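Hypothesis: this fold can be encoded by more than one sequence.
Test: take the structure tokens below, design a sequence, compare later.
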């Protein structure tokens, strides 16, 4: 008897609910890796990826929890990269691109070095921002270190929290305005690879690179404006596998264009929540990835089961 035509991934059916982008407190999410898996189970998901920023520190705990809960686990990393492009008005701009890397070998030396550097440079960056803020606010690096000693991740929210503790701010929101690019307090994260190098790096570590929330939050052409095709084609040339076209921050016209581009180049598109815990609006499973797409990711990574 032949197997049914149904696509099955490691025992999961075509109807499996798959969310390929979540965060734990190993980066900037709220819950422990175990909690994220429990919340995923409660949300009715079947397969979940943990994709903390620039770290694999949550994988073991998440994998063990997923196993106990009967969830399929996909190990991932959301790698911070830097892109540069010339826009349709001839203006050069630099921006951050997040790359989701699925099933990379975290012990591969080149990938390891880049992740370590990324994490180390984060502290340097926070210190630089804090020192500039200290010129105008009653804030010192020690205040930020205090927040970090509570187990907070070395990201800008740690400075915001230090300022809130000092009574300098009431909420985090105005902080991000204060330190955005172009302001006197801004400092870029310098230990970050460029996007093309990072795609090659992820492939070199056996991983499958997918651009997270491309051109999210209006950070791209408006409807009717030309799309940055050349930039994306360079990434495809370097080994890009797909686009996270289904994500709450990706506008409909951008999503449609990405799906067309993926089709033309035989790439795939994913969908996911980018869950950061109960504090943010993103709900687990609000966008999903097709089981046949996960199968492609596993095939490219040479992974037979979850
Ligand atoms: Zn995040
Ligand atoms: Fe992201
Ligand atoms: Fe994310």
């Amino acid at each position: 008897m032949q197997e049914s035509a149904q696509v099955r991934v490691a025992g999961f059916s075509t109807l499996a609910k798959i969310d390929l982008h979540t965060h734990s407190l190993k980066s900037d999410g709220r819950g422990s890796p175990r909690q994220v898996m429990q919340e995923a189970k409660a949300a009715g998901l079947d397969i979940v990826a943990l994709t903390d920023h620039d770290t694999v520190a949550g994988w073991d705990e998440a994998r063990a929890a997923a196993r106990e809960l009967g969830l399929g686990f996909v190990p991932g990393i959301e790698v911070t990269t830097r892109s540069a492009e010339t826009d349709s008005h001839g203006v050069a701009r630099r921006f951050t691109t997040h790359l989701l890397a699925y099933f990379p070998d975290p012990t591969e030396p080149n990938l390891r070095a880049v992740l370590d550097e990324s994490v180390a440079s984060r502290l340097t960056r926070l210190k630089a921002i804090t020192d500039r803020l200290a010129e105008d606010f009653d804030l010192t690096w020690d205040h930020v270190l205090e927040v970090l000693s509570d187990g907070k991740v070395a990201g800008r929210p740690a400075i915001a929290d230090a300022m809130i503790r000092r009574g300098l701010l009431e909420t985090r929101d105005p902080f991000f305005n204060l330190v955005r690019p172009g302001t006197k307090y801004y400092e870029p994260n310098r230990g970050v690879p460029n996007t093309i190098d990072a795609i090659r790096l992820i492939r070199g570590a056996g991983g499958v690179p997918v651009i997270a929330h491309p051109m999210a939050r209006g950070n791209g052409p408006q409807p009717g404006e030309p799309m940055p095709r050349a930039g994306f084609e360079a990434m495809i040339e370097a080994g890009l596998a797909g686009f996270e076209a289904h994500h709450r921050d990706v506008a409909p016209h951008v999503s449609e264009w990405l799906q067309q581009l993926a089709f033309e180049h035989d790439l795939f598109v994913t969908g996911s929540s980018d869950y950061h815990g109960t504090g943010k609006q993103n709900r687990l499973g609000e966008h999903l990835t097709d089981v046949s797409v996960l199968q492609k990711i596993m095939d490219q990574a040479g992974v037979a089961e979850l």
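The chain has ten helices and seven strands. The first strand starts at residue 18 and ends at 19.
Hypothesis status: open.
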